[in-house]
Amino acid sequence: MKPGKVYLVGAGPGDPELITLKAVRALGEADVVLVDALVNRDILVHAREARIVDVGKRGRCSSTYRSTPQRFIEKLMVRLARAGNVVVRLKGGDPFVFGRGGEEMLALREAGISCEVVSGITAGIGAPASIGIPVTHRGLSRGVTFVAAHGGPPLEWAALAASRTTLVFYMGLARLDEIAAQLMAAGLGASTPAAVIEQGTLAAGREIVTSLERIAQEVAAARIAAPALIVVGEVVSLADAAKPVARRELAHAA
Ligand code: SAH
């Protein structure tokens, strides 16, 4: 029997054209595709004959709930690959950026299953770019810090504020109030440009571009929902000004 293998594939941030040629090739080879919740289903046209299995996890707030499906997914991948299948594990953005791709790679390695990682465009780069925010920019920001706002030990607010890098928070919408307050308490000015991008790179996406001081209130007023990213730093001032204002007016009218 031909040995199976697993591709850990990044599906990009949402726009189905923001996927790599390698990802398209892996999908074309796949016998089974295990799809995460945040993946744009339009990408599955590349999977042709493959069996599509939805393994999207919801309720990201409960670690007990979360850990069981994670192990289940790892076991499922091992079982499918051992049966000779080419498996694509399709994840939103990049598989190694807050996607638990590392854990899955280690589980596969331990089981002796061949595993290939196919990078994708992470939401933290693709979503800001889609509204004209470069995460680094000469003279404005010499670095970018990706932060998981949720899970893990408490965040080092002073270090984040002092880094003077662009800060991109994933999974942070529910804690936006606290994030803005903590960053200001740690020394970032109230007028520091800040944005929240909802469903970045997608037609349905919206964004709020404002200051750190106003962001929580404006996002609540517009009823911005997950998935959303928080971007803080001077580079946010480069956002395409026309779009956010128009959308904000729409949101207020609704
Ligand atoms: N591996 C993914 C991130 C998974 S964590 C990546 O590299 O992009 C899930 C978080 O990603 C969400 O809570 C949200 O903060 C962010 N996210 C994913 N897709 C997004 C999108 N299209 N627009 C805004 N945020 C997004």
What's the structural blueprint in terms of helices and strands?
Layout lengths: L4 E6 L10 H9 L2 E4 L15 E4 L8 H20 L3 E6 L9 H10 L3 E5 L4 H8 L13 E5 L8 H7 L2 E5 L5 H10 L7 E6 L7 E6 L3 H7 L6 E5 L9 H12 L1
Parallel strand pairs: 1-4, 1-5, 2-3, 2-4, 6-7
Antiparallel strand pairs: 7-10, 8-9, 8-10
S-adenosyl-L-homocysteine binds next to helix 4 and strand 10.
Describe this structure in words.
- The protein has eight helices and ten strands.
- The chain is an alpha/beta fold.
- The chain binds S-adenosyl-L-homocysteine (SAH).
Task: Sum up the structure in keywords.
elongated; binds S-adenosyl-L-homocysteine; 10 strands; single chain; 20% strand; 254 residues; disordered C terminus; 5-stranded parallel sheet
